[in-house]
Amino acid sequence: MSDSKDLLRAPFELAYNYKRSNGPVMSKFFEALGEQKILGTKSSTGKVFSPAAEFDPDTHESLNDMVEVGPGGSVESFSWIEAPQNHHLIKEPFAFALIKLDGADSSMLHMITDCNEADLSIGTRVTAAWSETTTKRITDIKFFTLEK
Amino acid sequence: MSTEDTPKDYSESPINLEYFYTAGSATTRFLNQVKEGNIVGQGCPKCKAVYVPPRGSCPRCGVATDIEVPLTDKGCIESFTVVHIPIPGNPIVPPYVCAMIRLDGANISFLHLIQDVDIENIRIGMRIQAVWKPKEEWTHSLENIKWFAPIDEPDVDVATLRFQES
To answer: Where is the ChsH2 C-terminal OB-fold domain (chain A) (predicted)?
Structure first.
């Protein structure tokens, strides 16, 4: 056996430059983000999904009735990141959180920052902060912050 | 719909995975030899199978492959595929050939390129030899071999590529 200090080591990066087809429903969702609006899809049972869902997981119907939700919402659960790493988009301490936007029945995974861990609990009110430039991606919502 | 109000129908979603790779002891031994231009497989003390590149143990017998087996850079094509579709980020221009290379004396094969030959002439059993980069460019990588090219020797009988019980 070689001594472990003699073992070869090297950095290795694996990158996939995917382009994802949005489809008719998600295209509308991303278009709206570019206009600083958050959309959801409404099913015949009145349930609203945001991020937009293409199908209702209960009734299996295809969804295309778009309704606006948010920009405020409440924290359903969260995980605090005290020491962000290189690949995180936010360099200060922040939380990954599931946020149920006002008017929606499902929750959106996003980030909450500009607060302390102690400020967050299940049910905490937050609101979307928008990026300076829009790219019609989910990151057009820069993060969520505590509702003033 | 005019171009202006066509909804963006795709989104870029790149994935970047940054690893720090630590070669185990078997791979370290192998790559230290590759750096010097040598291909050294590892043999199973029980079934005598020779593995290149070695992973440190024999999957048939479950024992460490602690016998070093120097090999030549000659062998044959065990199987191959012609790649016609460009892969983003890959500098090699299609069509090109990837082949499983079985070196003489080895019981397993590894993937590498075949060049310096018309694609329609490539066949299973064809004799080939490594074409190395200039020595000053050698690193701890099988990329020290630019590709494998055919040599003027008779084809190998495919039946001999089967694993021989010893």
So the answer is: 67-130
Query: How far is the alpha carbon of B11 from chain A, nearest alpha carbon, in Å?
Result: 5
B28 vs A8, A17, A136: nearest CB = A8
Torsion, Cα of B73, B75, B77, B82 (10° steps): 20
Report, as an integer, the average pLDDT of A6-33.
Answer: 90
Q: Are A17 and B89 in contact (CB under 8 A)?
A: yes
Q: Does domain B73-161 have CATH number 1.25.40?
A: no
By the 10 Å C-beta count (0-12 exposed, 13-18 middle, 19+ buried), B149 is classed as middle
Pick left, alpha or beta for residue A57 (phi over 0 → left; psi -120 to 50 → alpha; otherwise beta). alpha
Q: How far is A139 from chain B (nearest CA, A)?
A: 11
Band (pLDDT 50/70/90 cuts) for residue B88 is confident
B10, A21: Cβ pair inside 8 Å? Answer: yes
How many whole angstroms from its chain centre is CA A122? 17
ipTM: 0.73
Beta-bridged to residue B103, according to DSSP, are B75
Name the band, by pLDDT with cuts 50, 70 and 90, for residue B165: low
- pLDDT over 90, % of chain A: 81
What are the residue ranges spanned by the domains of chain B? 19-71, 73-161
- Whether chain B has a CB inside 8 Å of the CB on A37: the answer is no
Give the DSSP H or E segment for A26: helix A23-34
**Quick check: helix, strand or coil at residue A68?**
strand
| Helix (H) or strand (E) run with residue A138 in it | none
Burial of A75 (0-12, 13-18, 19+ CB in 10 A): buried
